[in-house]
Design brief:
Low-confidence stretches: none
Shape: globular
Structural class: alpha/beta
Mean pLDDT: 91
Number of strands: 8
CATH class: Alpha Beta
Number of domains: 1
Oligomer: single chain
CATH architecture: Alpha-Beta Barrel
Distance between the termini: 17 Å
Order of helices and strands: EHEHHEHEHEHHEHEHEHH
CATH topology: TIM Barrel
Helix content: 40-55%
Strand order of the largest sheet: 1-2-3-4-5-6-7-8
Strand content: 15-25%
Number of helices: 11
Radius of gyration: 17 Å
């Protein structure tokens, strides 16, 4: 895999109500962030693709976190539309026929399969009728993602070591639900801190509320960048 610049390993989630606020937030973050996630909240607000182009025009990279999940043909056609958007990453749910359909149209777009939302835990799996462990399900879905032509997976830092042990550099691991030490977890259940995420094998981390809700978001982002620099001293 291509070497990842350290400062691109932090993906800041622009989880705000509209594109104007997202632009103001990105400007406030300045050079502290090089990679941004724009997801469903902004997608439903209007101006999504204009925002994506604006972020790209400022030299940023963009993760389109749309978590596509529909019949394979619909997903295939949606990915065909999205591949020229300029996004670096796009998420799809880790169901084999959906991933295979998406992979056929991805072009240079990197597909990330969502193994299991970090707001889910073992109790949630039991409620859905799945008898296995969280770890087993995530590894099963990671293997299917690789076989289907995806470039990586979305997985918590708790499962990252097993994914890297099983697949090495064949799959990127993008870890959401990252919480710096002493930060509330809110609705996230399978969380790790910054250092633990990278020690466990994450390639990128996605951080939302700990930056967005900080008194000084840029300072919060720079603190995370400092933790990343400490984790990658080479």
């Amino acid at each position: 895999m291509t070497r990842i610049p350290r400062r691109e390993r932090l993906i800041a989630a622009l989880d705000v109500p509209d594109a104007a606020l997202a632009r103001a937030y990105a400007e406030r973050l300045g050079e502290a962030v090089k990679f941004y996630k724009i997801g469903l909240e902004l997608f439903t607000a209007g101006g999504y693709f204009e925002l994506l182009a604006w972020l790209r025009g400022r030299g940023g990279k963009v993760f389109a976190d749309l978590k596509l999940y529909d019949i394979p043909e619909t997903v295939r056609r949606a990915v065909a539309n999205l591949r020229a958007s300029g996004a670096e990453f796009l998420t799809v749910h880790a169901e084999r026929s959906i991933m295979e359909a998406a992979a056929r149209e991805k072009g240079a777009l990197k597909l990330l399969a969502v193994t299991l939302l970090t707001s889910f835990d073992q109790k949630n799996l039991a409620e859905m009728g799945y008898a296995g462990s969280v770890e087993d399900l995530v590894l099963q879905r990671a293997r299917a993602a690789l076989d289907s032509g995806c470039d990586g997976v979305i997985a918590s830092g708790l499962e990252a070591p097993k994914i890297k042990a099983a697949f090495g550099g064949k799959l990127l691991v993008v870890t959401p639900g990252v919480r710096p030490a002493a930060t509330p977890t809110a609705d996230q259940k399978r969380t790790v801190d910054v250092g633990q995420a990278f020690a466990n094998g994450a390639d990128y981390i996605v951080v939302g509320r700990p930056i967005r809700d900080a008194a000084d978001p840029r300072a919060a982002a720079e603190a995370i960048q400092a933790s990343i620099a400490a984790a990658f001293k080479d």
